[in-house]
């Protein structure tokens, strides 16, 4: 499907140092130094409701990864999916008496508008689950043929992956078995289901049910894909094995990313699936994770409708470190607005302190596991100095504006 329209990214003198990123599997910060083009797969929306600030924060996080790689001289191939068929989408459509396809198309269109307004560089490939079904079904058949998947014997046609066939299962999330069972139950899995070989085995293919859409699965029979195999297939198809970054919010670490990686590694024999498994913290509201199921949401489109500058939203989300779970409050937005106004005033100064030192300090902060709060502090300090009349570099204000545009996605 089509992605959204991107904005031009200004070029800067020099290059960023190599990006260092936290990897959930190795539990530490390691250099991400792609050889050749950098490859990144990020888990996108399930389009049954509008884009909220949690989605926006995660998309901004991986937008910074892409910006830093590009600034370090790496061409980037970025893929993002849309889970345009899954239980939550069908449940919402049926609750509201709406066609699931119309709901998915409408919310995906709104997401594109929100991403454009937030100046997120679009992915090279924006791919729906539905358009990927023939390939996903092929992978499920391959897993059955390899003895790594099985069909339940209850007549449903449901196919499960054998976690026992992935010897390192759990290497990414480092959870105990009890924790995995509990999280599976919370996050779309079915550990209690009778007939599975292991409660942790995830669904690969759901046989057709009355009243649900279904697609031809060849030997699998009609049905629809499971969630984790969707992302594994889209990533493998467009990026090949051993990608540089597999990304998403930290709510996806288990079971989604653990299972996607296990599927991909079992299919290809290459491990790890990703050199870095990168997880963004959860944005919360009123003390709870912002989530469609809880309904405690602030929508990007609502803020835009209220005339809020998307750049102030972006600055609000960048003010906390991407890995920390953090709250969205009115104050966060207010600070974003104030910062944006100060930066705009400073960028229109006739001169300022040297732009070169400023640029390398911003690059250094971001290359250090995307330390956006420190990068913002560097820009704040430069702006205060420029507004106080310090420094006499007439080229500095323009370089400052280009820097925050190219590296932070903030258009002044
Ligand atoms: N379609 C699946 C991924 S394949 C999905 O999780 N969809 S989603 O709509 O629930 O979330 C889209 C992206 O936003 C995911 O990367 C998810 O981890 C992230 N996300 C969801 N809620 C939040 C939140 N409150 N804060 C930060 N990121 C979030
Ligand atoms: Zn995913």
- Secondary-structure class: alpha/beta
Our count of helices gives 13
Number of strands: 14
**Helix and strand run:** EEEHEHHEHEEHEEHEHEEEHHEHHHH
Q: What is the first-to-last residue Cα distance?
A: 31 Å
Cofactors, ions, other ligands: 5'-O-(N-(L-cysteinyl)-sulfamoyl)adenosine, zinc ion
| Average pLDDT metric | 96
Low-confidence stretches: none
Beta-sheet strand percentage? 5-15%
Q: Which strands sit side by side, in order, in the main sheet? A: 5-4-3-10-11
Helix content: 40-55%
What's the main sheet like?
5 strands, parallel
Using only C-alpha atoms, the radius of gyration works out to: 22 Å
The global form is elongated
Overview of the structural elements:
The structure is a single chain. With 412 residues, this protein is an alpha/beta fold. It has 13 helices and 14 strands. It has a five-stranded parallel beta sheet with strand order 5-4-3-10-11, sandwiched between helices. The protein has a four-stranded antiparallel beta sheet with strand order 6-7-8-9. Strands 13-12-14 form a three-stranded mixed beta sheet, with helices on one face. Helix 9 packs across helix 10, helix 10 (330-347) runs antiparallel to helix 13 (396-408) and helix 11 (355-367) runs antiparallel to helix 12. The model has no long low-confidence stretch (mean pLDDT 96). Zinc ion is lined by residues 43, 81, 231, 256.
Observed structural traits:
four-stranded antiparallel beta sheet, alpha/beta, single chain, binds 5'-O-(N-(L-cysteinyl)-sulfamoyl)adenosine, 13 helices, five-stranded parallel beta sheet, 412 residues, binds zinc ion
């Amino acid at each position: 499907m089509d992605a959204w329209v991107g904005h031009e990214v200004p070029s800067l003198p020099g290059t960023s140092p190599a990006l260092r990123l936290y990897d959930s599997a190795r539990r530490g910060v390691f250099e991400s130094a792609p050889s050749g083009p950098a490859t990144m797969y990020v888990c996108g929306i399930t389009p049954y409701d509008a884009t909220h600030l949690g989605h926006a924060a995660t998309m901004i996080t991986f937008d910074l990864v892409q910006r830093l790689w590009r600034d370090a001289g790496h061409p980037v191939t970025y893929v993002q999916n849309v889970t345009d068929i899954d239980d939550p989408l069908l449940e919402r459509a049926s609750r509201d008496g709406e066609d699931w396809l119309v709901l998915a198309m409408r919310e995906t269109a709104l997401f594109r508008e929100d991403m454009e307004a937030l100046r997120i560089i679009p992915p090279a490939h924006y791919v729906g689950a539905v358009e990927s079904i023939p390939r996903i079904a092929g992978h499920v058949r391959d897993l059955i043929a390899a003895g790594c998947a099985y069909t339940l014997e209850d007549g449903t046609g449901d196919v499960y992956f054998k976690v026992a066939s992935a010897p390192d299962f759990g290497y990414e999330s480092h959870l105990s078995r009890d924790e995995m069972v509990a999280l599976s139950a919370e996050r779309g899995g079915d550990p209690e289901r009778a007939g599975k070989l292991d409660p942790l085995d995830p669904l690969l293919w759901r046989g057709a049910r009355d009243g649900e859409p279904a697609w031809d699965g060849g030997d699998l029979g009609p049905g629809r894909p499971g969630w984790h195999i969707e992302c594994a297939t889209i990533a493998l198809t467009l990026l090949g094995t051993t990608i540089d970054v597999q990304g998403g919010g930290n709510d996806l670490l288990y079971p989604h990313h653990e299972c996607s990686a296990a599927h991909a590694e079992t299919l290809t024999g290459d491990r790890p699936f990703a050199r870095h498994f990168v997880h963004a913290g959860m944005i919360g509201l009123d003390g709870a994770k912002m989530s469609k199921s809880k309904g405690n949401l602030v929508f990007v489109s609502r803020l835009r409708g209220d005339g809020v500058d998307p750049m102030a939203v972006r600055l609000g989300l960048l003010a906390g470190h991407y890995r920390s779970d953090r709250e969205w409050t009115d104050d966060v937005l207010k600070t974003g607005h104030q910062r944006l106004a100060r930066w705009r005033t400073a960028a229109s100064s006739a001169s300022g302190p040297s732009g070169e030192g400023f640029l390398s300090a911003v690059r250094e902060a971001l290359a250090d596991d995307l330390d956006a709060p420190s990068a913002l502090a560097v820009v704040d300090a430069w702006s205060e100095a420029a507004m106080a009349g310090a420094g006499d570099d007439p080229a500095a204000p323009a370089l400052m504006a280009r820097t925050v545009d190219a590296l932070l996605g903030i258009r002044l």
